[in-house]
TrEMBL record:
It comes from Candolleomyces eurysporus. It is a multi-pass membrane protein. The chain crosses the membrane at residues 125-154, 175-195, 201-220, 317-337, 357-381. InterPro entries: CAXX_Prtase_1, Peptidase_M48, Peptidase_M48_N. PANTHER family: CAAX PRENYL PROTEASE 1. It is found in: Endoplasmic reticulum membrane. Binds 1 zinc ion per subunit. Residues 47-230 form the CAAX prenyl protease 1 N-terminal domain. Proteolytically removes the C-terminal three residues of farnesylated proteins. Its cofactor is Zn(2+). This is CAAX prenyl protease.
């Protein structure tokens, strides 16, 4: 532990200029946040002309019914226009809030609020919680019209919206309530660790955040998700039998198999699994069940089980923890840097002893350009994992033969072909874009494009046949 703290201290020595030099950090954040936004707008402008193509890629022409491709292009074009406007609008709002002192005002407002409740400014954790929720609620208000438009105009126009205005408002209120119920204790413990551990907070904070994530793995499906959706046991039938048999053959620790009423809000479809290593739950959207044949849904879940087999969620967790560790290792220099707070307009009496939550928020803003690069790298890793999960589905027959015998592997030889058909069906029915600019995809997409995945599946199937598997 002493070695770790020694290395972290060396990092802070190299960053000591932050605490001394007078740098216009607010200008830096404004310039780089706008740079990221304009780059994202540029990517949209690269992608936009592809929505004017009049035919799908040759390999997909037979999969579109008359008029279906035109609908997907129109949907993509409308989404791109909305994304371009909303991105610039949100950046303009954020930039205005930053420029005109919204953040210093919010800290002072939080102090005034707790004083009205009978607490002095010495209760910094309480003021910090009030500060975060003032920021959260007030900064949400300007973006509410975008959420409303996206749901009741854009998605409604293209036939996907199932949300009622009452449900929209109810969801919003529930989200705010959940943010407070879970966010307040999290912030309190988060800040208490800083008070208790001082500059040696990194390992203790990492331990707390990992523990919190594991707790949420349990609480989200059992407490939070039921507030928004109904999870029901998947009905007996062909699909249930297929999934349970598949899980058994792979020794996947399946505890519950649910159907979720995703159609309550949207016609889009999905499937996922969650849980602790020894107890997993599979959730299938009712829209996926309605839109796909049982054999295709089984193939989709074979892909998802590939993520489990190759431990992709665990690997992504480790990568994310390394990312968080790096951020926390850099933070102490900014935690003790009055010039940083001064540059953002905080009064001298606040900047003199920077509140932890304020310093951390400003530090996150300063990291904006770095986080944009990190997201590209994370997408690249995620796409690699998607290809690996596709390979698992294609090679599933051989894996089951090797572990459970030839009889158990019967009917799995075409799993890759079924997965390809399922992907095509989901793309067509969800009006997903099939023409994608490579740079736009690299920045925005955690999954390979449909054509990339189909080509990969074909190559994997050919390699499998060549080996005689």
């Amino acid at each position: 532990m002493d070695f770790l703290h020694g290395q972290l201290a060396n990092v802070q020595t190299h960053l000591s200029f932050v605490q001394k030099d007078s740098i216009d950090w607010k200008l830096y954040v404004q310039v780089f946040s706008w740079t990221v936004t304009l780059f994202e707008s540029y990517l949209l402008l690269r992608q936009y002309p592809l929505y004017s193509k009049t035919a799908p890629p040759p390999a997909l022409e037979k999969d579109f019914e008359p008029g279906a491709f035109e609908k997907s292009q129109a949907y993509g074009k409308d989404k791109a226009k909305f994304a371009l406007f909303s991105g610039l609008y949100k950046q303009a709002v954020d930039s205005s809030l930053l420029q005109f002192g919204f953040y210093p005002w919010s800290w002072q407002a939080a102090g005034y609020l707790i004083q009205k409740l009978g607490y002095s400014p010495q209760y910094q954790i309480l003021q910090s919680i009030a500060f975060v929720f003032i920021l959260y609620f007030l900064s949400t208000i300007p973006t509410l019209p975008l959420s409303w438009y996206g749901t009741f105009v854009l998605e409604e126009k293209h036939g996907f919206n199932k949300t009622t205005p009452k449900l929209f408002v109810t969801d919003l209120v529930k989200s705010w309530a959940i943010a407070f119920v879970f966010g307040a204790p999290f912030l309190a413990i988060f800040l208490k660790i800083f008070q208790w551990a001082g500059d040696r907070f990194v390992p203790w904070l990492m331990a707390f955040m990992i523990s919190f994530q594991l707790i949420m793995v349990i609480l989200y499906p059992t407490v939070i998700q039921p507030l928004f959706n109904k999870l029901s046991p998947l009905a007996d039938g062909d699909l249930r039998q297929r999934i349970e048999a598949l899980a058994s053959k792979l020794k996947f620790p399946l505890k519950h198999l649910y159907e979720i009423d995703g159609s309550k809000r949207s016609s889009h479809s999905n499937a996922y699994f969650f849980g602790l290593p020894w107890s997993k739950h599979i959730v299938i959207f009712d829209t996926l069940i309605q839109q796909s044949k049982p054999k295709e849904v089984e193939a989709v879940l074979a892909h998802e089980l590939g993520h489990w087999y190759f431990m992709h969620p665990t690997k992504m967790l480790v990568i994310s923890q390394l990312h968080i560790f790096t951020i926390l290792a850099l933070f102490p220099a900014f935690l003790h840097a009055p010039p940083v707070l001064t540059s953002f307009g905080y009064p001298a009496y606040v900047a003199k002893n920077p509140p932890t939550i304020v310093a951390f928020l400003l530090f996150q803003m300063i990291l904006t350009p770095v986080e944009a690069v990190v997201s590209i790298a994370m997408n690249a890793v995620s796409r690699k994992f998607e290809f690996e999960a596709d390979r698992f589905a294609v090679e599933l027959e051989g894996r089951v033969k090797a572990t459970a015998g030839e009889k158990e592997a019967e009917g799995m030889g075409d799993m890759g072909e079924r997965l390809g058909r399922a992907l095509i069906s989901l793309h067509v029915k969800n009006l997903s874009t099939v023409w994608v600019d490579w740079l736009y995809s690299a920045y925005h997409h955690s999954h390979p494009t449909l054509t990339e995945r189909l080509k990969g599946l074909e190559q994997l199937q050919a390699a499998k046949e060549k080996k005689g598997l």
